[in-house]
Amino acid sequence: MIVILSGGTGGAKLIEGLAAEVGAAELTIICNTGDDCVFHGLNVSPDIDTILYTLAGLSDSAKGWGIKGDTFAVLDQLRCLGNEAWFNLGDKDFATHITRTRLLREGCQLSEVTDRTRRSLGVQAKILPMSDAPVETRVTTLQGEISFQEFFVRERWSPHVTAVRFAGIEQSRPAPGVLDAIRAASAIIICPSNPISSIGPILAVPGIRHALNQATVPVVAVSPLIGAAAISGPAHKLMTAQGLEASAFGVAQSYREFVKTLVIAHEDQCLTERIQNLGIGVNTTEIRMPSLADKRRLACEVLALAQK
Amino acid sequence: MIVILSGGTGGAKLIEGLAAEVGAAELTIICNTGDDCVFHGLNVSPDIDTILYTLAGLSDSAKGWGIKGDTFAVLDQLRCLGNEAWFNLGDKDFATHITRTRLLREGCQLSEVTDRTRRSLGVQAKILPMSDAPVETRVTTLQGEISFQEFFVRERWSPHVTAVRFAGIEQSRPAPGVLDAIRAASAIIICPSNPISSIGPILAVPGIRHALNQATVPVVAVSPLIGAAAISGPAHKLMTAQGLEASAFGVAQSYREFVKTLVIAHEDQCLTERIQNLGIGVNTTEIRMPSLADKRRLACEVLALAQK
């Protein structure tokens, strides 16, 4: 069993490739929930849903979020009724959030809800939230502290960021199955996700970083940055705010305690020696994944490193 | 100000006619909420919504419920996720229920939510729920007790009914504005709605029947039955279960304490004397309202009686 730590968009690309190569049933995916938000009174888990929809063959890969061909009648009408509606939610997507919210209110844990949803959608991979407890990534800007979705979507990650914190993280515990999966893994893969806001919250759940540090199986990470910028999103901005170098070297620093090999872009070959000096092996390749063929090729390379 | 007591479909037809004749701003509509239900964790108020959509020009008059041209992507996806989905809810309609549920959870009363929604939709009539407290119409069938929507929609009102009750009615109070509206009314109109499950719950809210009994202004009701059957829906079935004659005479009996004039179908002219013997004036006319012209004509006739 391969254990994967992932955020949304970038992680979903590699996961699509991995599922195509080894079969989704071989994968256990531990998902970031620090981006979870309540919109219109409904519980939205953007990263879990991106992974769910990707593995269900429903995802809109052009947009990187939501369901392919989804319509927006609910959101349009919510706007007519005077609601703020800057976070795009499609009609089919609403069905996921309505079901999740109902089950949570009925007393189910997020991990149970996620498992029911993935079964309903015919997804064979196990998908685990990092925690059943609410954790909220908060971003400090010059205008004050806002939620990650407010920063990322509403403000299009334009504000200057001075700090990032995970509210509720101290009280959180790994969701059922998370630590067992890490202990039983044949390999562990860290997706090319934002190391601060996607992988960061997972690592900050008490117990998870320690379990990774104890792992004796191969742990392979893929950098989400090329040069000083993320392939998509604000990773470099948040890394700088947290005092990390905005580069694959900064990614290596974040994961140095447990990562054995870091896959970085050809363009970053110059960083190889600095990363190796941290005790981490380096593999350079093309890390962009615009097509399914690219996703499968990168997945193959990662799997080869994970089987060493 | 004209005060109207109404359920959904049948009431909405007369209300559309009345709004066209005197202007919606002249109307205060007291709506049945005994049919309210929670579907998918969302608070649905079918009668309020039918009236809202009708006055907002959004209603699907062919179907008698929902929003014209609405789509069903959310409901289809809810089915894919394994949810029971026998109650039809369109996508735009979902926006109403999502907003209502959020506001109720934030502590708003149903009357405030309803007022905000009608303003958002540009509706000039005042729409008041009969009560802010939850009241649930329960129908006893040979298979046990079920909710009104289970009986009406899921079972297509086919089961034999032995009793109807309004759970929570003793603890309910008229919503803010209801009693004041009845006291300040220049006329009161009882719509051609089900006297048991639409008008019945309104009359059963402690204080409302008494306020109607005290009214000195004209009170005009329109029968929802022709012969021994309702123009649409199960009124006759529920009237029989409650020991009433299933006819315009049974309607007259239900309202005898406060109704001055009952408008009945031409076909029921034979009941005139029996109804008059209850002390109620009778007006016979065409009570079907398939077109807007019919709605306006019947509204005109009712208004003439209400101005006497």
How would you describe the overall organization of this protein?
- Two copies of one chain form a homodimer.
- Helix content of chain A is 39%, strand content 19%.
- Chain A contains 13 helices and 14 strands.
- A seven-stranded parallel sheet of chain A has the order 5-2-1-9-10-13-14, with helices on both faces. A three-stranded antiparallel sheet of chain A has the order 7-6-8. A two-stranded antiparallel sheet of chain A has the order 3-4.
- Chain A is globular.
- The two termini of chain A are 15 Å apart.
- Chain A binds chain B through residues 40-42, 70-71, 73-78, 80-83, 90-92, 94-96, 98-99, 101-102, 105-106, 116-117, 120-121, and chain B through 40-42, 70-71, 73-78, 80-83, 90-92, 94-96, 98-99, 101-102, 105-106, 116-117, 120-121.
Task: Write a brief structural summary.
The structure is a homodimer of 308-residue chains. By secondary structure, chain A is α/β, with parallel strands linked by helices. Chain A has 13 helices and 14 strands.
